[in-house]
Amino acid sequence: MPVSAAADAADRMWILRFPPRPWPLPKARLVATDTDRARGTGEEIRAPISALLVLLTGRAQHLLPPPRPGARAASGPR
């Protein structure tokens, strides 16, 4: 997936109101590792923008890289 297309789609998912936004919003800060994109506040989740897009759409979270030592894993709502 082209990085620029994934970044545009992730921006659109960030502001989408319907369907309701899935976790991790608004509990986390999503930081793209392959482009200059970061959204949200809270504990950081760093991943390529395509993996963050998948997460924003409520799809498989196993696409995210393993958490850093001491960081919370990207799992479902708490």
Structural class: alpha+beta
Determine the fraction of residues in helical runs and give it as a percent range: 25-40%
* Amount of beta strand: 15-25%
Largest sheet: 3 strands, mixed
Shape designation: globular
Number of strands: 3
Structure report:
By secondary structure, the protein is α+β, with helices and mostly antiparallel strands. The chain has helices spanning 3-15, 49-56, and strands spanning 28-32, 38-40, 43-47. Strands 2-1-3 form a three-stranded mixed sheet. A hairpin with a 5-residue loop joins strand 1 and strand 2 (38-40).
Summarize the structure.
The protein is α+β, with helices and mostly antiparallel strands and about 80 residues long. The protein has helices at about 5-15, 50-55; strands spanning about 30, 40, 45.
Keywords:
2 helices; 3 strands; about 80 residues; disordered C terminus; alpha+beta
